[in-house]
Design goal:
Blueprint lengths: L1 E3 L2 E4 L6 H17 L25 E2 L10 E3 L8 H4 L27 E2 L6 E19 L17 E8 L7 H5 L5 E4 L11 E5 L8 E11 L7 E2 L1 E11 L15
Antiparallel strand pairs: 1-2, 3-12, 4-6, 5-11, 6-9, 6-10, 6-12, 7-8, 7-10
C-alpha cells in the first residue's frame, strides 16, 4: 500500500513486479513536480530535502560526510550535536507555521545547533571520499515571538570562513592566524524566504580535491550573542574514496 498525506492512494496485490515498478516511477515523477522546485527542494521527503533547488549538473554529496569524525566547538549542549546539521530530514521548525519546533507525537525536539558563550561556531567536517565542492546550502530558522530578551534570540550566520583539508578542528585563535580558503558574507536578501536556506557559491577551483572542511561562523546577523544553524548540505561531485583514519582529530570528544 502506498500512503500520501496519511491516506492510502494505491495498492499492489501479489508479486506483480511490473505494476510495482510502474507505481514507483509514478511516485518519483510526482516527487519531482511537487514542493518548491523538484528534487533537492524542501519537501516532506527525508531523502530529497536539501533546502533549495540543487544547481544543475551537481549533486547533493552530503552523504559523503564522515559522521563519526565530526567536531563542533562552542555549541550549546542543550541543543542538537553536529550530527543534527546533516540529518536527512526536513527541519522540525518548518513543520509548524507558528515556528514552534515539535517532533512526531507533539514532543518538542531541538534538531539544530546553537552557539554557547558567544556567536561563534567552529565545525570540522571530514569526508569519506575526496570531493569537488561547488556550493553549500545552510538552513537557519531563528524562532519568532519567543518573548525572551533580544540577546538570547539566536541569529542567522552572517560572516563565515572556510578552511579546506585540515586534519582536525581549528581552535578559534588558530583560525585567526590562518588564511581562510574562502571568506563569505551573507546578506539578508540571500536567504530563501520559504525555507530560510542560503546557497553559498564557492570558488570552485579552490575546492577541487577536498578531504575535509572547517566552517567557522565568525559573526551573526545582528547584535545578539547566539547563532543558530538547522541544516548544512554539501553540493558538488564525488571523487575517490579516501583511507579512513588518515585524518587525525585533536580533542576528547568524538562524533560530536
Amino acid at each position: 500500500m502506498i500512503f500520501k498525506d496519511q491516506q492510502v492512494v494505491s495498492t499492489v496485490q501479489g508479486a506483480d513486479s511490473r505494476k510495482l515498478s510502474e507505481m514507483v516511477k509514478k511516485i518519483a515523477a510526482e516527487a519531482d513536480s511537487d514542493g518548491l522546485g523538484g528534487f533537492g527542494a524542501a519537501s516532506d521527503s527525508s531523502i530529497a530535502w536539501a533546502g533549495i533547488t540543487m544547481p544543475k549538473g551537481y549533486d547533493n554529496v552530503t552523504d559523503q560526510v564522515d559522521i563519526r569524525g565530526l567536531d563542533l566547538l562552542n555549541a550549546d549542549s542543550n541543543f542538537g550535536s553536529a550530527r543534527a546539521l546533516f540529518d536527512a530530514s526536513r527541519p522540525s521548525a518548518l513543520a509548524s507555521s507558528k515556528g514552534k519546533e515539535t517532533a512526531l507525537g507533539g514532543e518538542e525536539t531541538k534538531d539544530w545547533v546553537e552557539s554557547d558563550t558567544d556567536e561563534q561556531l567552529m565545525l570540522f567536517v571530514p569526508f569519506q571520499s575526496t570531493l569537488k565542492i561547488h556550493s553549500l546550502h545552510i538552513t537557519s530558522l531563528p524562532p519568532r515571538n519567543t518573548g525572551v530578551e533580544a540577546d538570547d534570540i539566536p541569529m542567522r550566520p552572517k560572516t563565515i570562513q572556510l578552511y579546506s583539508n585540515h586534519a582536525h578542528v581549528l581552535g578559534f585563535e588558530e583560525a585567526d592566524d590562518i588564511e581562510a580558503t574562502q571568506s563569505i558574507t551573507i546578506q539578508p536578501q540571500d536567504w530563501d524566504t520559504t525555507t530560510s536556506t542560503v546557497k553559498i557559491d564557492l570558488r570552485y577551483v579552490k575546492f577541487q580535491n577536498v578531504s575535509s572542511l572547517v566552517l567557522f561562523v565568525v559573526r551573526g546577523e545582528g547584535d545578539g550573542e547566539r547563532v543558530r544553524i538547522d541544516r548544512l548540505r554539501i553540493v558538488g561531485e564525488k571523487g575517490s574514496k579516501r583511507e579512513l583514519g588518515k585524518l587525525e582529530k585533536i580533542g576528547d570528544e568524538t562524533g560530536e
